[in-house]
Amino acid sequence: MLEKSSSSGTKSISVHVVCDFDGTVALEDVTDGLLERFADARWKQIETQWLSGEIGSRECMSRQVGLIKAPRRELDRYLDEVEIDPLFASFVDECDRLSHIKLEVSSDGIDYAVRRILDNHGLSRVGVRANALIAVSDTTYRLGFPHYLASCRAQAGNCKCAAARRFSECSPSYSATVLIGDGMSDFCVASTVDFVFAKNRLLAHCIAAGIRHQAFDGFADVQRGFARALEELTDRSELGRPLKETSSDT
Fold first, then answer.
1. Three-state SS letters, 177-208
2. Share of the chain above pLDDT 90, in %
3. What is the CATH number of the domain that holds 165?
4. Is residue 127 in some structural domain?
């Protein structure tokens, strides 16, 4: 159960959940899976440039997707085999049930891949913010970046900081943003949100950067920790204390 257990009758704060996809919802990095199967081997050199900080993820993804050569049906054949965390659907159901929680999958990957996989698991209702796959021919593609901001510190195709900021600016009441993620595309936004569930590279980053967080392996852990996170955030808002001071369990 995700809701705050309280007998005080106080109104819950509005919560925006920014959830990564590759390696977080999906049990593998889907973008890498597409590149490994359908792209020229040069994509790995581009990946190395990104990992070293030589280029941003927007440039990295744009160049890599340009190396893919396969008909859409071949992409679909792979995407239709991708599994997601077995408890993500129940997490979505709980968020749907609670009107003060808004869940959005925010990925610096490919929107077509994210949406097809979610659709395959009966989750087409989940909001998705990602980079747009555009067909150039029957077998080649390019990326569009509807969520790109030139000011993005990570030079990402999809600025997750902007996704988090948009909700807090639009909320008329106390609001908080929770991040669930695992990788480099989550590093920047992790320092701006109110609570972080982290694993893999993001977990190591949070530890190194001193970012308050809770470690998780899967959505079973997120569901167990979410109610406590909401309670802490709600208690702080009722006391007029900054939400960013929320304590963590590492």
1. EEEEECCHHHHHHHCCCCEEEECHHHHHHHHH
2. 68
3. 3.40.50.1000
4. yes
